[in-house]
Amino acid sequence: MEKFLITTAIDYVNGAPHIGHAYEKILTDVIFRHFSQRCEKSYFLTGTDEHGIKIQKTSAQNNMSPQDFCDMNAQKFKDTWKALDVNYNQFIRTTDEQHTKIVQKIFHKLVEKGDIYKHSYTGLYCTGCECFLNSKDLTEDGLCPDHMKKPDVVEEENYFFKLTKYKDAIAKHIKTHPDFIVPSFRANEVLNQLENIEDISVSRATSNVSWGIPVLGDDEQSIYVWIDALSNYITALGYDTDSSSNKYSEFWPANVQVIGKDILKFHSIYWIAILMALDLPLPEHLLAHGWITIDKTKMSKSLGNVISPTGVMEAFGLEIPDPLRYYMASAAPCGKDGNYSDEDFKEKVNAHLANSMGNLLNRTLSMLVKYFDGNIKPEFLGKNVLKQSALDTIKSVKHHFDYFEVQEAAQKIIELVDLTNKYVTDNAPWTLAKEEKMVECGVVLTNVLQVMTVISSLIYPYCPNIAKAMAEQLSYDINSKLDDITCESVKVGHFIDKENIKPVFLRIDSELADKSKK
Ligand code: MSP
Fold first, then answer.
1. Max alpha carbon distance in the chain (Å)?
2. Does residue 70 have an active-site annotation?
3. Is 18 a catalytic site residue?
4. What is the pLDDT of residues 288-308, one digit of tens each?
5. What is the pLDDT of residues 455-502, one digit of tens each?
């Protein structure tokens, strides 16, 4: 793989980020870090979606100008991603000047091509969804099923995009690329939605929606949310209708675009149609993840169960985000819903990261110091009975990531940790030392340390800080590419001193559980 481009959905800035937004960004960051271990050039794009009626209304309720309101909230997203070590290369805001300018040009190009036309329209508009709904999509009481609110009846002359023109081409693409939509069971849903697709409104009267990008040459219309929002993926990279930047040519099309299942339709139909209309290459995969619930209940402001990711870190006194990253990234099988609970979070990270993984390294290094003054002797190195399992784990972790099975890959890593723990218990190096079988004892410890280097590389995308701390104590280069791993990096000589052995992760205090919502 020469290059790897990954993008996330851009979040609405009408509030602060919650754990659902964090789930997506962590998932993306873990995938990004894994593929960065496998290719030379990688790029991670994220950002915020700042236009539309929702922002216009919420900013007014907060007595702020829309721009000030967006600035304030966009910063909260940036701060949260920083706290979670979400290592993006670029953060685009749809209010960025470059984005605004190019969206206008894209719109204009589609008008010139005849793919955008003006049309009088009466429709049902849901502000929560920021889209028009069909009457057959509503509940029996005439409410939006997602927001349980009555949509507004909007009568306007709008610009429309000829989505129907691309219907057959999109269906063909989905059918001939079975791995385009991940997980593949969602492809049928999209094909069904395509059946009933109509041309879509892509502008709003400025008199109704003033917080939007004006249509070039038509001050009375502003570009409505989706053309603006979806184009971010290419405007951010420097796409231009005349001549695009090197970064755009280097990275587009995206290898994978990560989104929630609720916005799959917009990406697999609207976005693909826009790209086809612009004659641009399509992304290789759309990864539609599931939803995160809290204690098995949907998160909502009215239930008061909205969880802030930095709130969880504070409540549990976490200095590094690794436990939360690990927990969230392995919260659900690919594309399925997952759940957050304080109790489960604490139990899982204590069991996997502290008891199994951290402890294994700590006690192995401590025994090396106790029995051998921290030295590896030549006779300790030889055939490592764990090597094949370690190499097989690398292979299956890569395989799972090829299918974006992030939870499943984590399971494989923990299985290797468990196997190595069992190897230590079965071979009891402390008994070997007592029986003065020092070479056997040294061999066991060295074998474990070799495997720990592999584990540190594999766990790095999930837990970058813990992995770095492990690698430091193992004198291992954490930046090694996965293809270069041999499970033989531990060399003869002095390995570690007692004072340099530190626990890589301390158990989360049980008394702190259940505090994240307070
Ligand atoms: N602005 C649009 C996306 C435009 S992309 C060109 C949007 N914003 S959002 O803030 O509502 O959602 C951003 C992302 O967070 C979406 O992918 C959405 O699915 C995801 N999530 C929001 N709540 C979520 C959960 N509770 N759980 C998991 N992901 C969720 O949609």
1. 90
2. no
3. yes
4. 999 999 988 888 777 788 999
5. 999 999 999 999 999 999 999 999 999 999 999 999 999 999 999 999
Task: Return the number of other C-beta atoms located less than 10 Å from residue 225's C-beta.
Answer: 25
Give CA–CA dist 31/256, Å, rounded.
Answer: 10
Ligand 1 atom with minimal separation from the 229 CA: 6
pTM: 0.94
Residue 9 CA to ligand 1 center (angstroms) comes to 6
What are the tokens at 220? 């009375």
DSSP state of 483: G
What's the gap between Cα 199 and its chain centre? 31
Q: Average pLDDT, stretch 12-37? A: 97
Q: Which uninterrupted H or E stretch holds 154?
A: strand 152-161
Closest ligand 1 atom to 271 CA: 6
Beta bridge partners of 240: none
Residues with CB under 6 A from ligand 1: 9-12, 20-21, 23-24, 49, 229-230, 232, 259-260, 262-263, 291-292, 299
Tokens of 124: 């049902």
285 catalytic per annotation: no
Protein residue closest via CA to atom 23 of ligand 1: 20
**Do residues 48 and 77 lie in contact, with contact meaning Cβ atoms separated by under 8 Å?**
yes
Q: How far is the CA of 390 from the centre of ligand 1 (A)?
A: 37
**Cis previous bond, 253, omega within 30:** yes
Catalytic residue among 51, 99, 126, 412: 126
Residues 240, 421: Cα–Cα separation, whole Å: 55
126 flagged as catalytic: yes
